[in-house]
Amino acid sequence: MGSTPRHQRLTRLRRIEVSALLGMSVAAAGIVLESFTEDHPILSIESLDNVLTGILAALLAFTYEQKRYHVAMDKVRVIAEMNHHVRNALQAIICCGCLSEQKAQMKLIAESVKRIEWALREILPGDVESKD
User: Fold this and answer.
1) For 51-77, how does the pLDDT look when each residue is reduced to its tens digit (9 = 90+)?
2) Which residues are within 8 A (CB) of 123 and not within 5 positions of it... i.e. 6 or more apart?
3) Is 82 a domain residue?
4) Is the pTM of this model over 0.70?
5) 20 to 30 Å CA-CA from 46: which of 19, 99, 108, 124?
């Protein structure tokens, strides 16, 4: 389950907006504080270091948000994959009631349980051990 290109553009634009807003806030706060403490006009060459600090803050925030976004998308992918495998296995279990032989039903249920265990073991991150 991937996100659409439009959704990706919108979320990227949102991350850029938040980062830019943070950077401008940092720069503005620095400019105002410096103008009061050093008694110079707000728009002066002395404010350049605050603008550069704001740009750096915006870049750091954007990098952090990008990393957070990719981690979230990886989690969504894992959930979607697990959902697919578990639903397929459960569908087989539900349909086993159509089989007349109990032996065939048990075999189908056992295969479905193995598929779910495989999905848990192979798709989910970390050590997941079944309790036998």
Assistant:
1) 999 999 999 999 999 999 999 998 888
2) 78, 81, 82, 85
3) yes
4) no
5) 19
